[in-house]
Amino acid sequence: MRLGAGFSLSTNSASAIVSEVNHSLSFDGTNDFVDFTTAALQAKIADSDANFKLSGSVSIWVRLNLISSNSQLWDFAIDTNNRIQLQYKHSGNEYNFTFKGGGTGKTAVEQPGTSHENDGNFHHIVCTWDKGDDNEMKIYVDGSLGATTGLATVALSGDFDDTADSTVGPDGTGGVEILSGTSFNGSADLNAFLDDFVLYSSVLSASQIETLYNSGRSDPSLYAELDNRIAHWKFNEGSGTTVTDSVNGFVGTLGTGDTAPAFSTNNAAGE
C-alpha cells in the first residue's frame, strides 16, 4: 500500500519539521509516496477477521493544495484489475471512490459544493464497502454521506497477501499502498497534506463517521473506541524515514530522496 495523494502539503523536499506536537505528511505533487506493503499488514487485511475483499472502512484527513490533474489518495491493490482506491479528480472537483474486481469497476462520486483545492482546510474523507447483505459502497465527506453505489456485480479476485502480486513503488502493480506517485491509471501525483490514516475491518456507521468528523480532530482517542481497527497512522514521528501505526505496529516506509513526503506541523487537529 502506498500513500501519496493525501496529507497537508508543504514543499517538495524530503526534509522533516521536528516538533512534539501533531504532524501530517506533505506531498509535493510530483512523486512522493509512502509504501505500506509488508507481509504482516497484507496478512492482517487478508485474514478472516479483517478481509478487505468483503468489508471495511478507510478514514483519512486531507488538505488539498492546487491540483493540476487527477490525484490518488490511497490504493489497496491485488493487481491492476482488482483494487480499492480513492482519487481526487481536478477536472470535476470530485472524490472518486472505486471498487474494481476482475476488471469491472464501480465508483461512488462525491462533488463538494465548494472546491476543496487550496482552501486551507483539512477535510475528513471516509470510504466504506460491504460485500455482505448490503452489497454497497459509500463515501462520506466532512461527516455527511456523499454517495452510495451498489456492489452486487463486482467481486475482488485474488488475495491481498499474495506476495506475487505485491510489487511496491511509484509504478507498483499491486500491494497495499498509499501513494502520490504515478498510479496504475497514469499520472495521479498528489499535492496535499494527509493526516490520521485509519483502516477498519468493519463498516463504520453514519453516526460513527459524524462523531469522528465533529470530534476526532480534537479527541484522537475516539478512533480507538471504534471496533475493528486494523491500523492507525498518525504521522506524528516528525522526522525519520518510516511511520508506524499505533494499533499493530505496521510500518510504512517513506520514499527516498525527492520521493519522500515531508513531515509538517500543519495537521488536522489544528495544533
- Strand content is 35-45%
Terminal Cα separation, in Å?
A: 28 Å
The coarse overall form would be: globular
Total domains, how many?
A: 1
Order of helices and strands: EEEHEEEEEEEEEEHHEEEE
Largest sheet: 8 strands, antiparallel
What structural class should be given to the helix and strand makeup?
A: mainly beta
The CATH topology name reads Jelly Rolls
CATH architectural designation:
Sandwich
Topology, number of strands: 17
Question: How would you classify the quaternary structure?
Answer: single chain
Provide the low-confidence segments as ranges: 4-20, 163-174, 179-186
Tell me, rounded to a whole number, the average pLDDT. 78
Write the layout of secondary structure elements.
Blueprint: E1 2-4, E2 24-28, E3 33-35, H1 39-46, E4 55-64, E5 71-79, E6 82-89, E7 94-101, E8 104-110, E9 123-130, E10 136-141, E11 144-150, E12 175-179, E13 191-200, H2 206-215, H3 221-225, E14 229-233, E15 242-244, E16 251-254, E17 262-264
Parallel strand pairs: 1-12
Antiparallel strand pairs: 1-5, 2-13, 2-17, 3-16, 4-9, 4-13, 5-6, 5-12, 6-7, 7-8, 9-10, 10-11, 13-14, 15-16
